[in-house]
Automatic annotation (TrEMBL):
Coiled coil location: none
Gene3D superfamilies, per database record: 2,3-Dihydroxybiphenyl 1,2-Dioxygenase, domain 1
Any Pfam family: Glyoxalase
PROSITE patterns, sorted: VOC (PS51819)
Provenance organism: Antarctobacter heliothermus
InterPro entries: Anthracycline_SecMetBiosynth, Glyas_Bleomycin-R_OHBP_Dase, Glyas_Fos-R_dOase_dom, VOC_core
The name this protein goes by in its record: Glyoxalase
Domain VOC: 4-124
Length: 125
C-alpha cells in the first residue's frame, strides 16, 4: 500500500454531555475562539484552524463520551507552557493524568476533560 494523503486526520470530534460547560472548559484551556454551529444535523462547537483550506478542524458534539479516559486521545495545541495549561485544566474542572513529556517537536501532557475524554495538550517548540 502506498496511500499517503497530506493529512490522515480530516477532522476530529469530541463527544460531550453538556455543550455549554464543555465549550467553557475548552475556551479556558486552549484560549480558542470557539463558535457554535447549528447548520448540520446536530449542533456542534467548532475549533476552526487558522487556514481552513489546509488546517484540520475539530468540534464538540452532543454524544456519549468514553467517560474514563479509555477513548481515543485528541492532542490540542495550547498557548503558553504545558505547566500553565495544566493549571488551566485543573482550574476549569478537568484532570491532569500525566507529567509533562518531552518529544523533539515540543512537550505535552495527558488530561481528562469534564466528561472524562482523554486529551493531550501540546506545547510546540
Amino acid at each position: 500500500m502506498t496511500y499517503a494523503p497530506e493529512h490522515f486526520t480530516v477532522w476530529a470530534e469530541i463527544p460531550v454531555t453538556d455543550m455549554e460547560k464543555s465549550m467553557a472548559f475548552y475556551v479556558a484551556v486552549t484560549d480558542a475562539a470557539l463558535e457554535e454551529d447549528s447548520t448540520g444535523p446536530n449542533p456542534v462547537v467548532m475549533f476552526r484552524p487558522k487556514d481552513p483550506k489546509t488546517g484540520v478542524a475539530l468540534h464538540l458534539y452532543p454524544g456519549k463520551p468514553a467517560g474514563d479516559g479509555s477513548g481515543p486521545t485528541i492532542h490540542l495545541a495550547i498557548p503558553g507552557t504545558a505547566e500553565e495549561a495544566m493549571a488551566r485544566v485543573e482550574k476549569a474542572g478537568g484532570k491532569v493524568v500525566s507529567p509533562v513529556i518531552d518529544i523533539p517537536p515540543g512537550r505535552f501532557f495527558y488530561g481528562l476533560d469534564l466528561d472524562g475524554n482523554s486529551i493531550g495538550l501540546f506545547e510546540s517548540r
